């Protein structure tokens, strides 16, 4: 089944070129089926890029999926046209009386601030608490994962001595878990962050478990035992060139950052990076949709 996204969304043109099966609300309403309703809280500065990345991964499913985007009311992004938000986004006030099958909370460029220092943290807390009663399962990405671990499970983050940036190998330690069904025992994932989570606290937390291990990057996948929360510490949704563009942007800002590790072929910045995590990303998202959302969500939301 296709993914149902708004008419005119810029991501549509890109996804259609990639032969992603799409439909709009008019066509979807003609099908006698209840789609999965997914809400995306997009906190990333380049919202249009993140929309495309997430919609691409959500499309690889036999289920019909209906998407709503929301942005924060308490903080206005400076990197996206106001007209784009007005046309394609809702706010939490618009949706808080609704129920959703799934929620995705993206990363955000605020990880070097403590959570309570973030302008929209009170709104984030309200949304996360609301999701406990109104959403079947939530997928948290990068800073969104750190926020969930801090708020729901009292697991804090700490500053790294330097930024971790690159593509790192991960080994499954829970290979029979349905969330990682089909993913290779050894797989790759991009990471880009200045902070780490207290992984020892996660290991000893009775409500959480870790699904993989990486010597350099730490675990990528953490989940709650009740399936309500899946935390992705990296950016498995990234395109092949996203880390390169981040690196160039950091250099342009005069930041002292290292070249992304294990990323450019032969460690040569002139070589085009290859996407070595695409299949794992597709499998992870489709497994979450199937086993953590569709199989346990009520028919009548």
From TrEMBL:
GO biological process, one term: L-methionine biosynthetic process from homoserine via O-succinyl-L-homoserine and cystathionine
Chain positions of site Important for substrate specificity: 192
GO CC annotation, single: cytoplasm
Pfam families listed in its UniProt record: HTS (PF04204)
Enzyme class: transferase
UniProt entry tagged with the keyword Amino-acid biosynthesis: yes
Cited InterPro entries: Class_I_gatase-like (IPR029062), HST_MetA (IPR005697), MetA_family (IPR033752)
Site residues, Important for acyl-CoA specificity: 111
Protein family per UniProt: Belongs to the MetA family.
The protein's name in its UniProt record: Homoserine O-acetyltransferase
Organism of this sequence: Amphibacillus marinus
